[in-house]
Every structure is written in C-alpha cells, then in structure tokens.
C-alpha cells in the first residue's frame, strides 16, 4: 500500500508557465530522489518522487505551486522534515516556501506549543484577555546584579514577561546560572510588593545538551519561561524542549534567521517561518520584527504572521502568541493594539530605558495602556 502524502506550497518566480512547470519538476525530483527519471524503478518513481499537484499563475512572473511528498521520505527527525521542506531546493533561484499541510504529517514530528495562548495567560495568572507586555534585559557587559536591578524595576512596574536580551549567554560579566538566580529573586522581591509576579525568561540557547541543562535549571530556579534561538541551537532542539515534561513556556527569537525570509523570491515567507513552522515545532511565543522599526517587515507580513501564530496547531489545537518587537514604542502602542489585537505580546525595550522618569514609571505607563484598552 502506498504511503500517505503531504503537500508543500511554493511561490515560484518564472518568465513563463513552461519555465515554472520545469522548475517545479526540478524541485520535486531534487527534494525526493535526486536522480534522473530514466534510472528509477517503477516502484520508486510512483512512491518516492515528488508530484506537482497544482500550478497557478498569479501575475506575469509569479506562480503558486504545490508538490506532494511521501511519508516514506521522512523519518523520526525534524532535520529530515526540514530537508524535505527546503533542502537542496534552497539553492534554486525563484523557489519560496509558503505553506505545508501540517495536519498530514506524522504525528510525532510536530508537538505544537506546550502552553499556547490561553495556557500562557493561566501560567502567569493573567485572568483577562488583554494583550501582554514584554521587555528585555540589556546590554551585554553589565553584571548580574545590575541586570537583576533592571528586572526588579520592570517587575515593579507591572511588565508581564522580562526576558534576557538574545545576546545574553554565559559571558563572564553575568554567567548564566548566576544571572538566572539573581533575576528570579528580583521578580520574587517585586511580587512581595505588588502581589503579582512577573515572569523572567532566561536565554537558554547553547550548544547541544547544555541547552536542555539550562532549560531544567530555569525550571528548578523558578523562572517563568525561557528564551530560545532556534536557528542557533537547532529547530530540532525547539521540538525536543516542547516535547519534554518540563512545564515552562518557550519564547522563540529570530536571530540568525533573517536570510531565510528577506528575499521576495527565495527561501521562506515570514508567515511560514515565524507563524507556521515555529508554532508547529513547539514555540509558545514567536518574536518577529515589527513593521516600522529598524527592520524591513511590512504591515501585511506582520498581520499574516499574527494570523498563522494564532491558528490552532495541527496536533494540539493551541495557537502561539505573536510577539512583535524591534519597532514597538510607548507612543505607538495604542495604534499597534488596534492593528494587532489583544492576543499579542508587545516586546518593548529601548523606549522604556529612555523614559526620563525611569524604567518603573515607564513600565507602569505601558501597562496602563494595555489594561485600559482592554
């Protein structure tokens, strides 16, 4: 009996329908058997070769295509799934991934978010459906005590989630374990005054087993969740963490991923990477560059990411929190709330540090906007 199949959707750039069809055929063979058709057995040809199932022209040079692949091309790993999704086709010009039939993949490959949107709210004791706030501890070079003091001020001001900056690792100025304990303690001390505890999310990104050790250490220390950079430690690591028994949510950060999404004709769409793939592999939050900031994402791209993040994952029906950053300001927050809605985590950094009345005051001002809007 033939193995089940699943479709991957592509945006193809080509001059003519014939050229687009030829490119799709090249992709189908490259991503499956990687051999000329005339050397294949009938069984391999029918079972393993990618099959072009759709090709529609959008404009003079743009086409939408779908190619189906056999489950027999997969194994138990995320790495092989990624290889089938893009693999050698990443070296072709004019090929961009836009979607995948996630619900038709083998169930073990995509754990989905461990907490999801509602689970994160419950985890942090947020009983209303308002938007959440997040800020980052920075810069690199400060010692653990100084970073913990910033954490304390953010927590006093009511910030929901205080994460490490993605550049915080295990530097000598603020080693991971020391920083972890200092910042968790800061959130506890602030909670003694406010009655509500902020969640501190340390950056656990590291090599191989050290990432999992830091995940376990974060839980044992009482952190609220963790920050992970999937494209540094591996997308399979994200899925492994999401599948583990440790009950901490995961916030995925886009460092080292930009070259996958910046081309309009190759790689992955931002929606596919930040809205679909990360969620299916287990991210509870997806940080992405907000429109209007220091990065070049458009409003439409951001809205598409948001919609895909919130869509229930294929395996556990949990959406993840879209987390726009890199262009969110206190002054623009009311407008962004109207645009993105309350199922959003707003990551605001620099403008809180710059406030003339300090971090605690700036944080309270931000929280008043989120609470009053709801």
How does this structure look, described?
This protein is an alpha/beta fold. The protein folds into two domains: 5-104, RuBisCO large subunit, N-terminal domain (Alpha-Beta Plaits, 2-Layer Sandwich); 116-373, Ribulose bisphosphate carboxylase, large subunit, C-terminal domain (TIM Barrel, Alpha-Beta Barrel), CATH 3.20.20.110. Helices cover 40% and strands 17% of the residues. It has 15 helices and 13 strands. It has helices at 17-30, 42-47, 78-85, 116-123, 144-156, 176-194, 209-221, 230-233, 235-243, 258-261, 270-281, 299-310, 333-340, 350-353, 359-373; strands at 5-13, 51-57, 62-70, 95-100, 132-137, 161-164, 199-201, 226-228, 250-252, 267-268, 285-289, 321-325, 345-347. The strands form three sheets. The protein has a five-stranded mixed beta sheet. Strands 7-6-5-13 form a four-stranded parallel beta sheet, with helices on one face. Strands 8-9-11-12 form a four-stranded parallel beta sheet, covered by helices on one side. Helix 5 (144-156) links the parallel strand 5 and strand 6 (161-164). The protein is elongated and about 75 Å long. The model has no long low-confidence stretch (mean pLDDT 96).
């Amino acid at each position: 009996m033939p193995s089940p199949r699943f479709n991957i959707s592509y945006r193809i750039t080509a001059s003519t329908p014939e050229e687009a069809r030829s490119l799709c055929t090249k992709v189908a063979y490259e991503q499956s058997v990687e051999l000329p058709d005339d050397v294949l057995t009938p069984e391999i040809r029918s079972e393993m070769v990618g099959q072009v199932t759709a090709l529609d022209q959008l404009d003079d040079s743009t086409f939408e295509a779908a190619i189906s692949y056999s489950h027999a091309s997969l194994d138990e790993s995320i790495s092989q799934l990624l290889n089938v999704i893009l693999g050698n086709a990443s070296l072709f010009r004019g090929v961009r991934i836009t979607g995948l039939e996630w619900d038709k993949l083998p169930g073990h490959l995509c754990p989905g978010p461990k907490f999801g949107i509602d689970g994160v709210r419950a985890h942090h004791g947020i009983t209303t459906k308002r938007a959440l706030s997040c800020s980052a501890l920075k810069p690199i070079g400060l010692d653990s005590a100084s970073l913990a003091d910033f954490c304390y001020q953010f927590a006093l001001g009511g910030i929901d989630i205080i994460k490490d900056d993605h550049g915080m690792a295990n530097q000598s100025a603020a080693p991971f374990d020391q920083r972890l304990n200092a910042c968790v303690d800061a959130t506890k001390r602030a909670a003694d005054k406010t009655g509500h505890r902020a969640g501190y999310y340390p950056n656990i990104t590291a090599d191989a087993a050290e990432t999992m050790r830091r995940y376990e250490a974060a839980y044992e220390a009482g952190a609220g969740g963790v920050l992970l950079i999937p494209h540094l430690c591996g997308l399979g690591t994200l899925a492994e963490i999401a599948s583990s028994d440790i009950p901490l949510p995961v916030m995925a950060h886009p460092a080292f991923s930009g070259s996958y999404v910046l081309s309009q004709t190759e790689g992955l769409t931002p929606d596919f990477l930040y809205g679909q793939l990360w969620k299916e592999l287990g991210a509870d939050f997806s940080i992405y560059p907000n429109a209007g900031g220091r990065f070049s994402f458009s409003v439409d791209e951001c809205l598409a990411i948001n919609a895909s993040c919130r869509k229930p994952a294929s395996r556990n029906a949990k959406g993840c929190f879209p987390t726009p950053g890199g262009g969110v300001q206190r002054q623009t927050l009311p407008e962004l709330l109207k645009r993105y809605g309350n199922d959003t985590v707003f990551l605001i950094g620099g403008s809180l540090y710059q406030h003339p009345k300090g971090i605690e005051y700036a944080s309270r001002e931000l929280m008043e906007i989120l609470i009053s809007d709801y």
